[in-house]
Design brief:
The structure holds 2 protein chains of 2 kinds. Chain A is mainly alpha-helical. Chain A has 20 helices and no strands. Chain A is extended and about 80 Å long. The N and C termini of chain A lie far apart (86 Å). In chain B, helix 9 (234-256) packs across helix 15. In chain B, a hairpin with a 6-residue loop joins strand 13 (472-474) and strand 14 (481-483). Chain B contains 16 helices and 14 strands. Chain B starts with a helix and ends with a strand. The longest helix of chain B is centred in the N-terminal third of the chain and has 42 residues, at 10-51. The chains are: A mainly alpha, B alpha/beta. At the A-B interface, helix 1, helix 4, helix 7, helix 11 and helix 18 of A face helix 3, helix 8, helix 14 and helix 15 of B.
Chain lengths: 373, 484
């Protein structure tokens, strides 16, 4: 084939391909619109069904009526085991998936008894079986959605199934499974958590903080032991964060020891955790951190000194008003403002002086006066 | 001496033939490389969208993403926005996000932007401690609202958008800031979705861009887009396809290889510490949105930091496309000047391995698309017919290459539509899809050439040192308003 012919043929192919793609897209969309309309109708009916189920006592007669009106007999008969035939079972699966999505969305806005009723509705349908099957679905979204639904209706089989999801090749799935398992109680050991999640490797999500926070609420001791084993920096920071949110006074000394960790992030996290616990036992670590080389740590230390509060930190906070970096300067001024009379006197004295400390003290006091007015 | 006698001269004839040959080679190579890169982008974007986990609705977005979201400051620079600023701030106040503050920066408006805000939000003077970490023109006053504690209005001397944003960066105290145009509309859960990369990789992600869509033809009510439609005018319709191609294909693809060179100025989220470390926005830049991204890349690469700049396909910020050629021309000339300004300011990054994929892919892409592309394309439009007329170019080859150029362009545009339809489905009706398909073909015959003409005009303005923004008249989502 000559060069000219090749160019013409390439052009022709490039013209035909988009045309075919476009026609296919339009046909696909037309089909999806038809299916979508049917699904929307069923979703509407199922939403009404779910809403009626929220009433107490549940009006069985009305549910039967609605099932009849909206051709939801398959769903209604599930409980009685009357479903027969492949087509009906397929329809049932679609309905149950829709119902599951509706309930999940409703659960975001209801609490207490109403929430319990919705969860019961999930239990009484076959959603559990569908979700267990969905854990093996090839789509990541479906697997994650199944994990989230199963978390609402836990039992030993569900917990085991969730545990197997910690070996899922997709990091996001492992992460959501770990969050669910931790939320459902002490179902995970720390080794499982650290070993299966590849923290700092494929998983760096902030969801890890939520997991460690929940984990620490019933197993702070293990996190303290973990810190003694010199874990990687991100794991250490997460453990410290968890201990901070657990507000366990017993953890103060362990966290305080982390104030001399080589990583800046870990040292800063230690200060944040000590601020969250608010125990004066943190004093030596905070005073040390106020003179840290890293401005991020000095900033967090200033916040910590103000939130505990630590009057003994006033001289160092006063020094920090001259810090070359803005954030330690600003946070030190805020801390002095919140420490009490000693801090306020230091601020007033700084305001009458000169340089950076006078400027920041003046601004912070002006802000306070304006807010009070 | 007429043309025939000129051509009869052997030396001159062979010289012209050689020139014609080289001009054709340059034009064809540029075209070929551009289209090849577009195809590569299409494939990369498809790969990203295939893996992307879309959150189906606002309720689920809140449930899944709100716990891990970091606090954020919305920076809203406003210049002569009295007609729309109140409604737009109101829609921003209603965003679904766990913790955020809005900082509106009145950049020395000549109209009643500030007074309108003061009257409508019962603003009163406040004092807020801040450090001038990045430079900007003096601030004249700060205002807060007793009814909306998370709203701050800054009144400053006029210094342009980049300058206004720097003032906002200095005043925000939260770890991230989001830049939003005062005349844009954010979807209620767009922030939640857009910060997802920060939640997934908080240490490395330093900036995230979101998708911008055109609201022309869509129903807007109470500062919200309530029904998605298509414009009923041809010019904005062309821009719908163009925006799809730019956001869904180009940005998504380059984001995948960490070579994203532009986050739209209408909607972008930044880690504050990174933006400050890079020196904030550069004063007086026309293309401040591209410049800050290139600056961030440069700073991080020079410091040897491990970082990521991401683009997320689903968060949507709605804006209005120009509906007349005059306004479109102003906009495109400004964009062209902005691209050239950034390119030449950071030219040392070009083909410099020190800057990794940014220097070897991202920057050469700007060279090809914004620096070489417009003049070469224009040259092609004039030179090729002339050469063909004088017999220096085979008519068969001329026609074949013309067909190839258009066919390739159509394939790429339709390919983007396929991406949109397979993963996002933001256009609710089948006829929308059919119409966009038709427009994707039609844009190659006229619109593309007009656009190129504007870009060359922008080139000329850049060479002459023009730094004006131009007066952009827009119809407005609900009522007419003007924007400088």
């Amino acid at each position: 084939m000559t060069l000219l012919a090749t160019i013409w043929w390439t052009s022709a192919v490039l013209m035909v391909v988009p045309l075919v793609m476009l026609v296919t897209l339009i046909l696909r969309r037309l089909y999806q619109e038809r299916v979508g309309r049917r699904l929307a109708e069923r979703k509407k009916a199922l939403t009404i069904l779910a809403m009626i189920y929220l009433e107490a006592p549940v009006n069985d007669k009305r549910i039967r009526e609605i099932c009849g009106n909206f051709n939801l007999t398959v769903l209604h008969k599930t409980a009685s085991g009357l479903v027969q035939g492949r087509r009906r079972k397929a329809q049932l699966r679609i309905d149950l998936r829709l119902l599951r999505d509706i309930i999940q969305d409703l659960l975001g806005s209801v609490r207490g008894e109403t929430r319990e009723r919705l969860v019961n509705l999930l239990r009484t349908t076959s959603a559990r079986q569908i979700c267990l099957a969905d854990l093996r679905n090839r789509r990541v979204d479906t697997r994650i959605s199944a994990i989230e639904t199963l978390t609402l209706i836990p039992d030993p089989e569900v917990i085991d199934a969730l545990r197997t999801m910690l070996d899922d090749p997709e990091p996001d799935v492992r992460l959501v499974a770990a969050r669910s398992l931790v939320a459902l109680g002490p179902n995970l050991t720390l080794d499982d958590l650290v070993g299966k999640l590849d923290i700092g490797g494929t998983i760096r999500s902030r969801m890890l903080r939520e997991i460690f926070r929940t984990f620490a609420s019933y197993n702070a001791a293990d996190l303290m032991l973990l810190l003694d084993r010199n874990p990687p920096d991100l794991t250490a920071a997460l453990a410290i964060y968890g201990l901070g949110t657990a507000q366990d006074y017993g953890a103060v000394s362990v966290i305080a020891n982390c104030a001399s960790w080589p990583s800046i992030d870990v040292r800063a996290e230690a200060m944040r955790a000590l601020a969250a616990i608010g125990h004066p036992g943190a004093e030596p670590a905070v005073l040390q951190a106020l003179q840290d080389d890293a401005w991020e740590v000095r900033t967090e230390a200033a916040i910590c000194a103000g939130s505990i509060p630590l009057p003994s930190a006033v001289p160092l906070l006063r020094e920090r008003l001259e810090d070359i970096e803005w954030w330690p300067r600003f946070r030190a001024a805020e801390a002095l403002r919140s420490i009490g009379n000693a801090g306020r006197r230091a601020l007033e004295a700084a305001r009458l002086g000169s340089g950076r400390s006078a400027s920041i003290a003046d601004m912070i006091l002006a802000e306070e006066r304006a807010a009070a007015a | 001496m007429n043309v025939d006698s000129l051509l009869a001269n052997d030396a001159l004839s062979s010289y012209l033939a050689a020139t014609a040959w080289w001009a054709s080679v340059i034009i064809l190579c540029t075209m070929f490389l551009q289209n090849l890169l577009y195809m590569l982008q299409l494939l990369l974007a498809f790969n990203v969208l295939r893996r992307w986990r879309f959150v189906p609705n606002a309720v689920r977005a809140w449930r899944q993403l709100s716990d891990t979201s970091l606090p954020i400051s919305l920076l809203v620079p406003a210049y002569n926005e009295e007609a729309t600023v109140v409604a737009n701030v109101r829609s921003m106040l209603a965003l679904h996000y766990p913790r955020f503050e809005i900082i509106v920066i009145n950049d020395g408006s000549n109209d009643a932007t500030l007074q309108t805000l003061i009257d409508n939000y019962d603003l009163r003077p406040i004092v807020r401690v801040y450090e001038e970490e990045v430079p900007h023109r003096p601030i004249k006053g700060l205002y807060g609202s007793p009814n909306y504690p998370n709203l701050i209005v800054v009144d400053k001397e006029n210094g342009g958008k980049a300058d206004a944003l720097n003032a906002g960066i200095n005043l925000c105290r939260l770890p991230m800031f989001c830049v939003v145009d005062a005349d844009s509309i954010l979807e209620a859960d767009s922030l939640l979705r857009a910060v997802q990369p920060f939640s997934e990789d908080p240490d490395r992600v330093i900036a995230v861009g979101g998708t911008i869509r055109l609201a022309n033809g869509s129903g807007v009510h109470g500062g919200r887009v309530v029904s998605v439609g298509l414009p009923n005018k041809l010019l904005p319709l062309f821009q719908v396809v163009e925006y799809l191609r730019a956001f869904l294909m180009a940005r998504l693809a380059w984001s995948e290889i960490n070579a994203l060179m532009l986050i739209s100025g209408a909607f972008g989220i930044f880690k504050r510490s990174a933006a400050v470390a890079a020196g904030g926005y550069s004063y007086g830049t026309v293309g401040e949105d591209m410049e800050i991204i290139v600056k961030l890349h440069r700073y991080m690469r020079e410091k040897g930091e491990d970082y990521v700049i991401r683009f997320v396909p689903d968060p949507v910020c709605w804006t209005e496309a120009p509906e007349t050629l005059r306004v479109l021309g102003l906009q495109r000339k400004r964009w062209q000047r902005g691209a050239l300004e950034t390119f030449f300011k950071h030219i040392r990054m070009l083909f410099n391995p020190r800057y990794g994929v940014v220097g070897m892919v991202g920057f050469p892409y700007i060279l090809l698309l914004d620096v070489i592309g417009p003049p070469v394309e224009l040259l092609g439009y004039f030179l090729i017919p002339i050469l063909w007329y004088f017999g220096f170019l085979s008519p068969e080859f001329f026609a074949a290459f013309l067909a190839l150029t258009f066919a390739w362009g159509v394939t790429i545009s339709v390919g983007t539509l396929v991406l949109e339809e397979m993963e996002l489905k933001r256009f609710p009706k089948t006829r929308h899809l059919a119409l966009l398909g038709f427009i994707a073909v039609l844009e190659n015959f006229g619109y593309r050439q007009i656009n190129n003409f504007f870009r060359v005009a922008g080139y000329w303005q850049y060479l002459r040192g023009n730094k004006e923004w131009g007066r952009m008249t827009r119809a407005g989502f609900q009522q007419a308003h003007t924007k400088e």
